[in-house]
Amino acid sequence: MNLRRFALIACLLLPGTALARERPVVLELFTSQGCSSCPPAEKLLGEYAGRADVLPLGFHVTYWNRLGWRDTFSFEGATQRQAAYESRLGSGTSFTPQMVIDGRTSAIGSRREEVAAAIRKASAEREDDVEVALSRSGGGVTVRVGAGRGRAEILLVGFDRARTTPIGRGENGGRTITQSNVVRSLRSLGPWTGRPVERGEAAPEGEDAAVILQAPDGRILGAARL
What we know:
- This protein has 226 residues and is α+β, with helices and mostly antiparallel strands.
- The protein has a 4-stranded mixed beta sheet with strand order 2-1-3-4, with helices on both faces. The chain has a 4-stranded antiparallel beta sheet with strand order 8-7-10-11, with helices on one face. It has a 3-stranded antiparallel beta sheet with strand order 5-6-9, covered by helices on one side.
- Helix content is 21%, strand content 38%.
- The chain has a single domain, classed as Glutaredoxin (3-Layer(aba) Sandwich), CATH 3.40.30.10.
- Keywords: Signal.
């Protein structure tokens, strides 16, 4: 066995390392605290937060901020990520609540049965999966990506497990909303070209972290969380 490949496999078996062979389906909810249709989708995302086979992430977009309430967790990277899916998936326009499942398909975020069916379908379509691992290293994290075919981008995500916010204005004014797996940061670690990669990184903003390997067409090829 190639020594580099052996070393990577050994690292992937270390305790406390997130493994790609157990890799979750990535569930991305594009949402806003200013959107009155979003709380049911937020609730659904929260129900998936305790499952090992799903990585739910709440991306708070910025375009609702001009409509009465500035989302306290919105950031431009979330808006840009949704816009990229718009062209990849042919959704026509950005909307909330939008659920993107494994980078392959889109659904209205509150449609429980549709989202569940898309997760099952994504779980069955993993012929191009690549081993990915994420572990803590000192005050940072170590990202490892195995060998495979094709090209992809390595993304490091930081998120908070749950945040509760009183909403002062806008469509949800007067409500207190609890949101799960709120994305606080999204950082590209550069390209993956099919060869094994190992690199140390500063810990992302947020209580928890995940790494995603995403193909140019949007498909998720690998994912792991701490």
